[in-house]
Amino acid sequence: MNRFAGFVVLCVFGAVSLHATLLTSPLAGGTTTTFPDDVSSLCYSGPTSGPYPVAGFQVSASGGSACYPYSDSFGLQVNGTWDNGLIGDGSGGTTLTVDLGGLYSWVGGFVDYEIKFEGNPPDALPPVMAAIAADGVTVLESYDLSVFAPILTPGGYNEGAFRGIDYGSAEIRYLEFGGSHTLMHSITLGGSNVAEPATILLAGSALAAFGLGLLRRRRG
């Protein structure tokens, strides 16, 4: 069973984590990066593609063709058209993986997707978003967006909504999403547990002073 199929199973039978939350708006203190509107319209196809550097992230795809970034019109059928910078699924069954470059407690982005309807192929996949741990394998949490937080932009142009995952602790290293023609225009990160260099130095100095104090006590 491929990873995307595993996402669907998780969405049907329940969440991995009891403390994760699906976000419909970004939390306070996050940092947002918007994917560029690249006139080169880079699209790749095959079993796997990437990783490619996009706006400071490493983005890869599996299961079909992917665009990152993409500047031409991106049809979402009932949900209208997107004609701006994006990373997205170009074939109807691609999973995109964004390496966040660190560990975060919550992550999300401005997204939209093609709504499944009667005329779609029977194997059309739902839009799924998942938070992946540092090992690149463990699915911390995943959601079928069409079930838990549908996005409806009928006939819209460059419309969408924020969707994300709050895991509650800084364990998210990768954000994965995919389905039938899904796109992400920006990504927002928050809750990093990476200490600043000055903080690390201060903590090291305090620990050294504490150890020196213990040594002096023993000698006395």
Q: What can you see in these coordinates?
A:
The protein has helices at 3-13, 145-148, 197-219; strands spanning 21-23, 31-34, 43-44, 48-54, 57-62, 66-67, 74-75, 81-82, 87-89, 94-104, 106-113, 128-132, 139-144, 161-166, 172-179, 182-190. The chain is globular and about 40 Å long. Helices cover 17% and strands 38% of the residues. The chain has 220 residues and is α+β, with helices and mostly antiparallel strands. It has a single domain (3-193), classed as Sandwich (Jelly Rolls), CATH 2.60.120. Strands 1, 2, 3, 6, 9, 11, 14 and 16 form an eight-stranded antiparallel beta sheet that branches. It has three helices and 16 strands. β12 (128-132) and β13 (139-144) form a beta hairpin.
Task: Write a short abstract of this structure.
The chain is an alpha+beta fold and 220 residues long. It has 3 helices and 16 strands. The chain is 17% helix and 38% strand.
Order of helices and strands: HEEEEEEEEEEEEEHEEEH
Distance separating the two termini: 65 Å
| Form type | globular
Number of strands: 16
